[in-house]
Amino acid sequence: MNKYLALAALLLNFSPVHASEMAEFQAEGIRLEGFIGVVYYTNAADGYHVVATIADGERGTPVRFEATLADAQKMSISIPGKPGEKSRIIQISRTGGKLMLFEPELTQETYW
């Protein structure tokens, strides 16, 4: 339990994601509403192995998402908004040997 509290305390220093290129083995902090976490990737034979771990605040149970991305693929992590409000989304996209972490522009379809 203490390791989760330490991770959460460290992550409170991260600002929300806007757009950034990720480096292999270098964790990036993410924040979606009350959820905080980290994302990192490794380069495997079948693609970029992406791991995202988030928790609901400091005391929430951590949840891990994993995906292997080939070129031109992406994955999303989203938190739905309240009725009539926008959802919060973070996308992780692989293009041309780069992995980008960003919050896309939200459209009417991203409302709850």
Can you give a write-up of this model?
The chain is mainly beta. It has one helix at residues 2-11, and strands spanning 19-22, 28-32, 35-44, 47-56, 63-69, 74-79, 88-95, 98-102. It has one domain. The chain has a four-stranded antiparallel β-sheet with strand order 1-8-7-6, with no helix packed on it. The longest helix has 10 residues, at 2-11.
In this structure, how is the largest beta sheet organized? 4 strands, antiparallel
**Mean of pLDDT:** 81
Overall geometry comes to: globular
pLDDT under 50 segments (min length 5)? 1-17
Helix fraction? under 10%
Radius of gyration: 14 Å
Q: Tally of extended strands?
A: 8
| Beta-strand percent range | over 45%
Which quaternary structure do these chains form? Answer: single chain
What distance lies between the first and last C-alpha atoms, to the nearest angstrom? 33 Å
The string of secondary-structure elements, in order, is: HEEEEEEEE
Note the total helix count.
Answer: 1
Number of domains: 1
